[in-house]
Amino acid sequence: MWTPVLPDGHAPLYERLVSAIDHDMRAGVLSDGERLPPQRELAFRLGVSVGSVTRAYAEAERRGLLSAHVGRGSFVRVQADPLRDVPTRERGMVIAQDRGTVDLRCNTPPPVSLVGSLNAALAELAARGVLEPALQYVQGAGLPAVREAAALWLDRQFGLQVTAGDLVQCNGGQHALALVFSSLCRPGDTVLCESSTFYGARMAAEHFGIAMRGVAMDAEGLSPEALDRAAAETRARLLFTVPTLHNPTSRTMSIQRRKEIAEVARARDLLILEDDAYYSYSGKPPQIARFAPERTIYLASLSKGVCPGFRLAFLVLPQLFPVERMLRGVRALGYCPPALGGLVFSQWVADGRVDAIMADVRREASERFTMAQAALGTAMASPGGPCSPHVWLPLSPLAAEQVAARALRGGVELTPPDASTVSNDADSGLRLCLGAPDDRASLAMALSVVSEALVRREELACEGVV
């Protein structure tokens, strides 16, 4: 049976497998109508995950390279008719595909108009003659004016009273994660986190040779008892957590749970890196940093609630924290934070525009969340807040792979089911990022495709086909 040779490169595994299918079709290794190996068999032969093969087959079918038939398999199709072999009820999915792929993978704030606010801020900064730092290296923890604005913003929007001297300006939340991991951990160290976690944290840890140990979750998020056991077993010194609208499951810790996590961290001498990226969408519960200020590094970013393009985030460091260690990391990973976006942000804080922008973002997010509720119904887990920029569909691993593959055939890209998984007991399912589509019409189409994929999967399950 056919066993492809995957091309080298940095492209995702599934894309390289699609390239191998296309290459072997053109080279005559695969002939028209030939049946490809079952997904699990090919995954075993290549030593890769079934999810990667499933996604590759789905993408190859979307490109017209393959024809999939439930119960029979996937077959090579050189001359593809987009509607051939597609049941009438599914043609809308193919037509949607022809309109272009809708990407629900990137967790970005819903689009609102920012150009006018940007132009106004630049004009005001120029009139005040304070744009010169944007052309120079910024030394240390960031521009004083930017950190002072951040302290005001954290007070107004997050309810945290900090001083500018407590803050380190970073090049976005991902840079902040990399900065903390690389400054506090050595290769081979263990960082504790939820059993499913933010993919960017996984990527940063892997890059620095750091192991992530997933800790069991319940309906409120991270389990204190499981955290205590994991800390005792690993002797880890750092916990990374997303306690508010957790990514990917959208769960939010209660106040009592936050206090319990703080107590475990204190008893086990854990530092906490609290990523509060989604705080502005929530009911604004008090942060873990309020219950364990002496051991919590608090991360607030503009990327999820204001403007991702600024690449601007702030770390709030505990008192008596060795700041110089963090500043060496700033220099090593980027030398200095960018100034222009920070200066615009400082102007927006001064004139109140940042509050208005965040309100606009929340309104649009709320509208999109209502659309998701209407389209997905009980298939969607209830988030721990009045709305969320991402929603979670609890599904078994196999069902998640099947729904994601079917959605991809309909022109909707979803985050791979195992992208956030850290441990075997992690909740399985699919995350949908509602802010990623350019407009509500595109989101409505995407939600319709996902809903249809869920319904069709249930029908096939009832028929005993899957």
TrEMBL record:
Residues 11-79 form the HTH gntR-type domain. One of its GO terms (molecular function) is DNA-binding transcription factor activity. Pfam families: Aminotran_1_2 (PF00155), GntR (PF00392). Keywords: DNA-binding, Pyridoxal phosphate, Transcription, Transcription regulation. SUPFAM superfamilies: PLP-dependent transferases, Winged helix' DNA-binding domain. InterPro entries: Aminotransferase_I/II_large, HTH_trans_reg/aminotransferase, PyrdxlP-dep_Trfase, PyrdxlP-dep_Trfase_major, PyrdxlP-dep_Trfase_small, Tscrpt_reg_HTH_GntR, WH-like_DNA-bd_sf, WH_DNA-bd_sf. In the C-terminal section; belongs to the class-I pyridoxal-phosphate-dependent aminotransferase family. This is Transcriptional regulator. It comes from Acetobacter nitrogenifigens DSM 23921 = NBRC 105050.
